[in-house]
Write a structure and sequence with these properties.
Length: 121
C-alpha cells in the first residue's frame, strides 16, 4: 500500500482516515456527489441503506468516530478507477466488526461505494 499522487486514489490518506480519531480525513476522499450503499444484518441487499452526498456521509462518519472503537485498514487494492479495501474494527467491549468495500473512483475521489459489514452479536 503506497501513497498515490496526482488524480490517483491516495491509499495513504485512506489508511490515515480509517485509522484516525475523526472522520474528517476520510471524508476528504469522497466526491461531493458520492453515494454509499451499506449492506449488513439490519440493511439487507434488497433494502440497503443509501447515503447521498458528502453531508450524509459526514453524518455517518461523525456517528462512527464518536464510538469507543478502533479502526484498522487491513488491505487495499487499487486498479484503474476501482479500489477495494478491508477494514477491521473493535469496540471497547471487544465486539469486532469487519467491513469490505468496493469503490468507484472519479478524479481520485470516491464516487460510489458498496460497503458490506458484519459484527459480533
Amino acid at each position: 500500500m503506497g501513497s498515490a499522487t496526482g488524480s490517483a486514489f491516495d491509499t495513504e490518506t485512506l489508511r490515515r482516515g480509517i485509522e484516525g480519531t475523526t472522520g474528517n480525513t476520510l471524508l476528504a476522499l469522497y466526491a461531493d456527489d458520492a453515494e454509499i450503499r451499506i449492506v449488513d444484518h439490519n440493511t439487507q441487499p434488497s433494502r440497503p441503506r443509501v447515503l447521498h452526498g458528502r453531508g450524509e456521509i459526514a453524518a455517518l462518519l461523525d456517528d462512527v468516530y464518536r464510538r469507543d472503537m478502533t479502526h484498522k485498514l487491513d488491505q487495499c487494492v487499487v486498479q484503474g478507477d476501482h479500489a477495494a479495501f478491508t477494514e477491521s474494527c473493535q469496540y471497547g467491549d471487544g465486539t469486532r466488526v469487519l467491513a469490505e468495500s468496493m469503490v468507484t473512483l472519479r478524479d481520485g475521489k470516491i464516487s460510489r461505494q458498496i460497503l458490506i459489514q458484519a459484527w459480533d452479536e
